[in-house]
């Protein structure tokens, strides 16, 4: 089940919200949320819901063992935690990838049963790991109530598409929170905006990207390739940030406050800034649990660079079991290293030129990210910069890919990916601004539902995560 579905909007969400309102006791509310969260996951993963439950049980006890151990025993349980959680990812997400890679390198034909990947396994595994690692580092105490842990990991708003919520950020909210009219209204408004991002923008541009990436090499040229590349760059932002907005809104409706996950990444002046604004929960996870424990920038320049490249290698691999993701991660890491070179850092570039540079690097990176193979990515990139084969057939093809409505969505997406809407809201102060924002969110919700009722195209692009 996904948020942008009629089943979720008009059956699941009203029922779970209504049932939650029936009870005042926080422990009962937690049990209600656990039950519905497990049903939410089981809707799409009836078997793998038991895997997720097993993960919560294992990490619950591992945290308890760590909290009661010292010295080598404590480190042993830490190693066991890492082996267990990374092992889950390797088995259910990377087995097929590793076997295929081994076969291609050795020329062998090892056979392995194809393993279906559980939806959202990277999200809930990283959440579980962050809890146990925080216990090990003494940031939090081990939670003795198992129900609080299973709720933290399985809570449906952030279960399958993030953001990656750290336990210490919501620890108090698990036992002390309240559902109010104001929070509910704010949550509905935020959810409606996220739904519109996903349905009215990402889905429309996703159709453009899918059509372009499905073309043969001979059908591509500069205009078509750039249309597909930009469409996907906007699609993944509005899809991903839209889901984050919906998760934050849903959390607010049930009394939770989740941290922001995106902060207008496409206005960045360099790649370092881009990663401070893009998928913030993932960036901070790798910083806190990989980069800093590896030594961060405290052990000399060479070690710092190795740590950064390692983090971005893992960041790419986290996104999917494909070499395109690995190369995309290393590609981003390379530009971070280049930006740390003194000659580059000391040179002042105009803000506009810096933003163009960052966007160019990002859009090229997302071509690699979106492509099924590295060869396919090279074909797209070649046509983006060298595909000057304009014909009447290509002009006709472009007109079938991009309609006047699509052009309107392109323009709206570009504007909405900047803080300009926030500036306008600040200018319109007082009750009018608030009333206008709620009216706009209501209109966007209605348009989103209308779109869902008319179109069968509603991809879930995080199935590989």
Layout of SSEs?
Layout: H1 6-21, H2 26-44, H3 48-67, H4 71-106, H5 121-136, H6 146-154, H7 167-170, H8 181-213, H9 222-253, H10 271-277, H11 280-291, H12 301-319, H13 323-339, H14 342-346, H15 351-370, H16 374-386, H17 392-401, H18 404-416, H19 420-427, H20 431-454
Structure description:
With 465 residues, the protein is mainly α. The protein is built from 20 helices and no strands. α3 runs parallel beside α5, α9 crosses α16 and α11 packs across α12. The chain is globular.
* Structural class based on helices, strands and sheet pairing: mainly alpha
**Unreliable sequence segments:** none
H-E string: HHHHHHHHHHHHHHHHHHHH
Question: Distance N terminus to C terminus?
Answer: 16 Å
Number of continuous helical runs: 20
Question: Could you write a compact summary of the structure shown?
Answer:
The protein contains 20 helices and no strands.
Features:
mainly alpha; 465 residues; 0% strand; globular
């Amino acid at each position: 089940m996904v948020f942008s579905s009629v089943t979720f909007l008009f059956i699941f969400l009203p029922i779970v919200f209504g049932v939650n309102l029936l009870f005042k006791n926080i422990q009962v509310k937690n049990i209600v949320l656990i039950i519905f969260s497990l049903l939410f996951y089981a809707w799409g993963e009836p078997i793998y819901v038991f895997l997720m439950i097993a993960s919560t049980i294992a990490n619950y006890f591992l945290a308890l063992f760590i909290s009661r151990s010292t010295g080598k025993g404590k480190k042993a349980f830490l190693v066991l935690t890492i082996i267990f959680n990374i092992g889950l990812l390797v088995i259910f997400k990377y087995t097929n990838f590793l076997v295929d890679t081994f076969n291609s390198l050795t020329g062998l034909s090892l056979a392995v049963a194809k393993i279906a990947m559980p939806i959202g396994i990277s999200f809930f595994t990283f959440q579980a790991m962050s809890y146990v690692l925080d216990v090990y580092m003494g940031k939090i105490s081990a939670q003795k109530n198992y129900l609080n842990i299973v709720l933290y990991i399985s809570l449906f708003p952030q279960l399958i598409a993030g953001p990656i919520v750290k336990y210490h950020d919501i620890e108090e909210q698990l036992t002390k929170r309240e559902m109010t009219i104001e929070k509910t209204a704010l949550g509905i408004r935020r959810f409606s905006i996220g739904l519109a991002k996903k349905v009215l923008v990402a889905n429309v541009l996703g159709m453009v990207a899918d059509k372009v990436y499905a073309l043969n090499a001979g059908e591509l040229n500069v205009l078509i390739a750039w249309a597909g590349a930009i469409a996907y760059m906007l699609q993944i932002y509005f899809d991903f940030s839209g889901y984050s907005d919906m998760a934050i809104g849903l959390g607010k409706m049930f009394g939770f406050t989740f941290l922001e996950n995106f902060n207008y990444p496409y206005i960045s002046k360099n790649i370092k800034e881009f990663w401070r604004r893009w998928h913030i929960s993932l960036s901070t996870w790798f910083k806190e649990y990989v980069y800093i424990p590896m030594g961060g920038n405290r052990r000399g320049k060479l070690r710092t660079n190795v740590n950064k490249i390692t983090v971005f290698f893992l960041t790419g691999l986290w996104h999917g079991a494909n070499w395109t993701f690995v190369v995309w991660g290393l590609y981003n890491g390379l530009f971070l290293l280049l930006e740390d070179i003194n000659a580059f850092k000391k040179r002042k570039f105009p803000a506009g030129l810096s933003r163009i540079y960052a966007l160019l690097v990002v859009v090229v990176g997302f071509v690699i990210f979106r492509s099924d193979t590295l060869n396919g990515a090279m074909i797209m990139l070649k046509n983006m910069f060298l595909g000057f084969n304009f014909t009447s057939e290509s002009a006709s093809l472009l007109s079938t890919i991009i309609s006047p409505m699509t052009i309107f969505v392109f323009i709206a997406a570009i504007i909405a990916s900047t803080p300009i809407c926030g500036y306008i809201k600040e200018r319109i102060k007082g009750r009018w601004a608030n009333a206008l924002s709620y009216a706009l969110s209501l209109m966007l919700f209605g348009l989103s539902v209308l779109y869902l009722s008319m179109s069968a195209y509603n991809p879930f692009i995080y199935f590989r995560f």
